[in-house]
Amino acid sequence: SARRRMFPSVRVKVKGLEPLKQYYIAIDVVPVDSKRYRYVYHSSQWMVAGNTDHSCITPRLYIHPDSPCSGETWMRQIISFDRVKLTNNEMDDKGHIILQSMHKYKPRVHVIAQDSRFDLAQIQSLPAEGVQTFSFQETEFTTVTAYQNQQITKLKIDRNPFAKGFRDPGRNRGVLDGLLETYPWRPPLALDFKAFGADSQGGSSSSSPVTSSGG
Amino acid sequence: SARRRMFPSVRVKVKGLEPLKQYYIAIDVVPVDSKRYRYVYHSSQWMVAGNTDHSCITPRLYIHPDSPCSGETWMRQIISFDRVKLTNNEMDDKGHIILQSMHKYKPRVHVIAQDSRFDLAQIQSLPAEGVQTFSFQETEFTTVTAYQNQQITKLKIDRNPFAKGFRDPGRNRGVLDGLLETYPWRPPLALDFKAFGADSQGGSSSSSPVTSSGG
DNA sequence: CTTTTAACACCTAGGTGTAAAATT
DNA sequence: AATTTTACACCTAGGTGTTAAAAG
Question: pTM of the predicted model, to two decimals?
Answer without folding.
Answer: 0.79
